[in-house]
Amino acid sequence: MQPRWFCDIEVRPQPLPRPMAASAIVRVLHGAFRQAPGRHALAMPSHARLAHSVLRVFASGRDELDALIANIREAPSLLEQAVIHYPRSVPEDYAGSWSIYQRFRIPSRRAERIPGRSVRLKRVQEANARELPFFQMKSDSNGGRFRLYWSVQPYTGSEPKVRESTPDSWGLSTTTNPVPLPDIT
């Protein structure tokens, strides 16, 4: 995937508070991203007035964005909580900054293998100390609830325009595969 097209999903402040509404929308996007693996990337633009007020989805082509929008358009959480804006192309001559949106992993309780030593607790404390934003998620497979923390770092690698990358099923970068996205305002 190369981020050549994008659309913004504006999160309404009512009837749910924005963080809850954004989490519900990300759950819908995750389901759609799983149906088309590696084709869409998710960003939360920093220019947005309020946290969780805009979710930005990138794709290589307009047809991929159109297919995604057709897939999610009728989801109740989007009908009630969001406005999907018209897709736009990333300017060919874009020379601005690029960022990486990456999941901040916190091990599950089941992953704790050494009694008395909590890597999970340390990661949660680190995420809270860094004031990382998160989405409140619910697993469809086991019904468990968890927070999907994410962080943003500036991209400093090779030329991002020619880089082919594959986002995970959340639309985020992984530690082994960064997905640089343009910081378009």
From TrEMBL:
Pfam families in the cross-refs: Cas_Csy4 (PF09618)
List where Polar residues composition bias occurs: 167-178
Instruction: Write down the Gene3D superfamilies for this protein, in alphabetical order.
Output: CRISPR-associated endoribonuclease Cas6/Csy4
Segments carrying the region annotation (Disordered) are 157-185
Give the domain of life: Bacteria
Could you tell me what this protein is called? Type I-F CRISPR-associated endoribonuclease Cas6/Csy4
Query: What are the leading ranks of the lineage?
Result: Bacteria, Pseudomonadati, Pseudomonadota, Gammaproteobacteria, Oceanospirillales
